[in-house]
Amino acid sequence: MTATLEPRAIGRDLARRDGAAKVRGTAVYADETPVADPLFCRIVQATVARGRVTEVDTADAAALDGVVTVLTSTDAERLASTDDAELAVLQGTEVGFRGQIVAAVLAETDEVAREAVDLVRVTYAAEEHDARLAADRDDLYTPESVNPTYPPDTHEGDMAAAMAEAPMTLEATYTTPMHHNNPMEPHATTALWDASGAGHLTLWDSTQGVHPVRQTVTQIFALEPEQVRVICPFVGGGFGSKGTPHANVIMAALAARAVPGRPVRFALTRQQMFSLAGYRTPTIQRMQLAAERDGRLRGIAIDVVEQTSRIKEFAEQTGVPTRNMYAASNRRTTHRLAALDVPVPSWMRAPGECPGMFGPEVAMDELAAALGIDPVELRIRNEPEVDPETGKPFSSRNLVACLREGAERFGWAGRDHRPGVRLEDGWWVGTGVAASVYPTMRMPKSTATVTYDAGRFVGRIGAADLGTGAWTVLPQITADALGVPVEDVDVLIGDTDHPEASVAGGSSGTTTWGSALVEAVREFRDKYGDHPHDGDAASGSVNPNAAEEDYAMSAFGAQFAEVRVHADTGEVRVPRLHGVFAAGRIVNPRLARSQFLGGMTMGLGMALHEQSLLDPRTGHVVNHDLAEYHVPANADVDDLQAHWIDEDDPYVNAMGSKGIGEIGIVGTAAAVANAAWHATGVRVRDLPVTLDRVLPAR
Ligand code: MOS
Relative to the CA of 347, which ligand 1 atom is closest? Predict the structure, then answer.
């Protein structure tokens, strides 16, 4: 048992501490870092998807007034480590995907740099590339593990026998497209090597983790941690794309290395973010359900095919949520990858869980319809008593409570479960439900310090706030651990000069950093009691959670959607989207609501709009800007509500909190697709649910 905090500041509806600075425009982002006399970096990107650069003619670019240098793979500095092919910027002539960096220009102004890159002429020896994902490829392979360290395949019981013998079976294939994270602030870095020859590098980088960036950069440039400082007070969104350093960070450091003493700014353009900053792999999900007539599952299986890049593997854990969701004695989950000549996929909000709950939750809806069972009731009937995967009890699991409260709030009772029966003013109207899940994760490493000075307590930890609220909730947690008013506490984050912190990823930030701060406070109070003096200081680190040995830990939720499909045009609208979540103790209701609503809005984008269209003939994402890669705007978001049920979980951490950054996106797309079926009778198994997919079948 670890729940020792008496919640006084925790649970309070406090405003964002960084809110005023952001609204007033005084919050400084990486590319705006005030530095003296910066140079500007712009890049040239490969126009072939596979092959070799045979010549880079830099003469015209170098001759342009204001150009300081042009970097190519022939003259760029050799990096100490090129093990990570995504990060081995300008280290060779081989092209692994279209959009890879093949040259860079440094100039006195951004305009000159931009003009100069257009003057660089690159000649390629193109090779035949392969960028077509399909489930029938003969070169699919099984990765050693899926993100982060799950086994790729699991088998329990005999799924084939369950499919052969169960009174009701369902088999269908679902797909989700390639998605790009698209935070508002593009990836950006200001980089400065000192001129003294000591080899000290400062990076002001837009990142979800200053220490992870430092670790990567020290490896690649063979530096000691003391030689690198990474600073990031504010992030204009990341959604996972800033969770691991991408080529842009190395490019910035490499460019600045050419001009010691002068800072260099390098920001990706929106279009460049479609090849250099990670993305969500497209997925092909073959689902099997074997059920009794009363809906209880005898078996559940998901076989996933997805892509990775030929130059670096990222294996998304799409099949993993199926392992924990429903009671079924026969289960199979598998992952197969196609290694293609495409950019490197990576984390995007709820990697695995988000796309991996689309197939299963639509399949459950199809099963409910086939059996004539209320889809809410079907899920309740399949609620497991323990985690089906490990046999451990859940530290807390309130999916059923979320379904019941959601049904109540949404007005689910009395729903006519037949599809395509409600036509109102020329619109087909339907409702749908889906479940959400996200694991409660704690990272193994994070340290915090607490000091007391002149009546104030100051916590320090290199945490990141990518809009999630760390600037605000970490003082709340620290104040409760100290037993002092939150107004007397500051927690400073976003700098490697603070103690080492884990990445803001896997919805683990509050759990991990909060636990480190609680440990630091324990140490502080042990040393100084409750009457500290100026200068008193203590530090503490996050410990492994022993309760994880005995309990499975996840947050759950239920999403309810109303969909209207225009009978003539097929236009799809979502007038209502209500989510109910069970995510432990909510540390700050105002900020939590914003996380849930943001996740659901992103899920709405996944349901109706988002798809990166990679043309296999060129390996190029053709809709590589926000004019053609559509995300929800205000007019698309109508009655969007997030609620939660109070959950008292003494096992997860001292705060009793579970992660909330990602669960809001999970299940949304399935709820919308299920509602679209209920409205029209057309079952869309391939996202997004666009008008061409719902109209022709009517
Ligand atoms: Mo989140 S995609 O784990 O940053």
Answer: 2
Distance separating alpha carbons of residues 101 and 89, to the nearest angstrom: 7
508 Cα–ligand 1 center, Å: 9
Residue 599 CA to ligand 1 centre (angstroms): 12
Residue 203 is assigned to a structural domain of this protein: yes
> H-helix or E-strand containing 3?
none
| Burial letters 1-34, b for 16+ CB under 10 A, else e | ebbebeeebbbbebebbbeeeeeeeeeebbbebe
pLDDT, position 173: 98
Give domain status of residue 116, yes or no.
yes
- The binding-site residues of ligand 1, defined as CB within 6 angstroms of any ligand atom, are 208, 239-240, 243, 347-349, 351, 505-506, 662
The CATH number that applies at residue 123 is 3.30.365.10
Atom in ligand 1 nearest the alpha carbon of residue 504:
4
pLDDT the model gives residue 3: 52
Q: Do 331 and 430 sit in the same domain of this protein?
A: yes
DSSP bridge partners of 641 = 578
Total count of domains within the chain: 3
What is residue 697's predicted lDDT score, i.e. its pLDDT?
57
**Cβ contacts of 226 within 8 Å, gap of 6 or more:** none
Check pLDDT > 90 for residue 323.
yes
**Which residue's CA is the closest to the ligand 1 atom numbered 4?**
240
Same domain, 205 and 347: no
User: Among the three residues 232, 250, 269, which one is the final residue of a domain in this structure?
Assistant: 269
- For 25-43, write each residue's pLDDT tens digit: 999 999 999 999 999 999 9
CA of 609 to the centre of ligand 1 (A): 21
Contact of 349 with 468, CB cutoff 8 Å:
no
Structural domain boundaries, residue 40:
33-128+183-269
- Mention every residue, 6+ apart, whose C-beta is less than 8 A from residue 59: none
Q: Rounded distance, CA 212 to CA 201, Å?
A: 15
State whether 675 and 579 are in the same domain: yes
Number of Cβ atoms within 10 Å of the Cβ of 421: 13
Look at the alpha carbons of 351, 352, 357, 363 in this order and tell me if their dihedral is positive or negative.
Answer: positive
Q: Looking at the structure, do residues 356 and 427 belong to the same domain, yes or no?
A: yes
Distances (CA, A) of 565 to 103, 358, 441, 639, 685: 48, 20, 39, 17, 16
Residue 523 annotated among the catalytic residues of the structure: no
Nearest to 434 by CA among 558, 599, 580, 287: 558
For residue range 358-396, what is the model confidence (pLDDT) as tens digits?
999 999 999 999 999 999 999 999 999 999 999 999 999
Please check whether residues 594 and 647 belong to one and the same domain: yes
Give yes or no for a contact between 535 and 452, defined as CB atoms under 8 angstroms apart: yes
User: What length does the chain have?
Assistant: 698
pLDDT-based confidence at 1, cuts 50/70/90? very low
Inside any domain, residue 69: yes
Residues 6+ apart with CB under 8 A from 121: 55, 56, 57, 60
| Residues 198, 219 within the same domain | yes
Residue 24 maps to a domain: yes
